[in-house]
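User: tokens in, sequence out, please.
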């Protein structure tokens, strides 16, 4: 007779983890996969894959994770809060731990185990978690693994806010625009995660003794683990880093499932079609911006009334004027004549290097510039104003709000309100 297996489904904000334990709590199946917002499809695929591996065995199942409540209901399975699931796994597999730090896709958790159980978890903001790291990696045109590689070659650590991704970008963009090394920014991102976790969750409570580091980000990013160890001043022997640190919450759910009703694996498979068709009725949805195609067309026509008059650069002769907007994420350029006619324009991402993107623009512009056209003055605005002005000997630097107003006044004399949404 086949012994009962125990499955834990950890359905997180960015990943799905599936663990199956045997009757001696040994892992017989484990899979960690990003779902890219296709949660139901990913779960169905992993469950079917697990079935192929272990067959139609009797099993118990428990769901956990930030995205697991509705899915547990649709699959008619039990649900366990992830902090509790993690604690159960700690008690079973690493009972010597005094403190456990666990980072997920959008959650950060600290569990104090010595001197009374105390569990702490972040709120609704994903600042200082795996999603935050992913977002900062995109800013540096890499992924989380690339960020780790960059951080391993750092020389300087800068202060960066991790409470919010927007605040962090507000710190990082000026550093990029001022030429800070990507390696130094990468390690600074990791350090900001450490600072946010310790200050936001520990709140002054001492993190001492044997400290377990758990969760996907801490498993896959050794440089992040190093930042925790150095910041907490922990010796190597004080760090507990299990082989399956990324599966710990799922393992806790599997352990907790032992109290659930047994089913055969085939019964779980039979519930999957219902999962794929299910939809949460409680989701609140916005009304459409336009009630009809006519409203949309009227909107487009109204906003198309103010367009810059354009002239062909290749036929132009005379004086012209160059404006550069070195923004937080993009670089824009416009070349105009004495009448304000647009001769040349460019809009593109700066890939974290406003100098290189400006070089690209100028090289393209000078290739197109005819012999009789003369750039007699230039101005730069935006986040990278100082850097671009110094690097390219631009004639003028202007505060971007004044630049906005100057352009708005040209198109709409007497303008009294300007709304601009930029990269930062």
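Assistant: Sequence out:
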């Amino acid at each position: 007779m086949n012994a009962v297996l125990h499955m834990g489904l950890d359905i997180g904000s960015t990943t799905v983890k599936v663990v199956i334990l045997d009757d001696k709590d040994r892992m017989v199946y484990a899979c960690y996969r990003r779902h890219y917002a296709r949660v139901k499809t990913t779960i169905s695929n992993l469950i079917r894959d697990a079935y192929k591996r272990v067959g139609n065995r009797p099993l118990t199942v428990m769901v956990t994770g930030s995205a697991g409540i509705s899915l547990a209901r649709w699959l008619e399975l039990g649900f366990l809060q992830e902090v509790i699931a993690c604690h159960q796994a700690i008690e079973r597999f690493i009972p010597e731990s005094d403190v456990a730090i666990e980072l997920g896709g959008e959650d950060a958790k600290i569990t104090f185990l010595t001197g009374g159980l105390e569990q702490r978890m972040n709120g609704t903001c994903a600042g200082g978690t795996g999603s935050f790291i992913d977002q900062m990696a995109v800013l540096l045109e890499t992924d989380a693994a690339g960020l780790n590689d960059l951080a391993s070659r750092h020389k300087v650590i800068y202060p960066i806010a991790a409470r919010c991704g927007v605040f962090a970008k507000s710190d990082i963009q000026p550093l990029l625009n001022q030429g800070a090394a990507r390696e130094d920014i990468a390690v600074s991102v990791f350090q900001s995660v450490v600072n946010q976790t310790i200050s936001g969750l520990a709140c002054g409570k001492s993190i001492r003794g044997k400290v377990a580091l758990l969760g996907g980000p801490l498993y896959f990013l050794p440089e992040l683990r190093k930042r925790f160890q150095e910041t907490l001043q922990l010796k190597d022997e004080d760090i507990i880093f299990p082989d399956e640190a990324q599966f710990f919450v799922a393992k806790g759910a599997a352990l907790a499932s032992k109290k659930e009703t047994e089913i055969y694996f085939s019964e779980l498979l039979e519930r999957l079609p219902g999962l794929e068709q299910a939809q949460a009725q409680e989701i609140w949805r916005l009304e459409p911006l336009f009630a009809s195609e006519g409203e949309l067309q009227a909107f487009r026509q109204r906003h198309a009334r103010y367009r810059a008059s354009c002239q062909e650069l290749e036929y132009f002769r005379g004086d012209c004027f160059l404006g550069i907007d070195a923004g937080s994420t993009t670089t824009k350029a416009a070349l105009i004549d004495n009448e304000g006619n647009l001769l040349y324009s460019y809009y593109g991402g700066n890939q974290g290097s406003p100098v290189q993107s400006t070089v690209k623009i100028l090289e393209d512009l000078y290739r197109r510039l005819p012999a009789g056209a003369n750039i007699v003055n230039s101005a730069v605005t935006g986040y990278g104003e100082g850097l671009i002005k110094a690097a390219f000997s631009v004639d003028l630097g202007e505060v971007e709000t004044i630049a906005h107003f100057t352009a708005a006044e040209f198109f709409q004399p007497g303008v009294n309100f300007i709304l601009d949404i930029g990269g930062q």
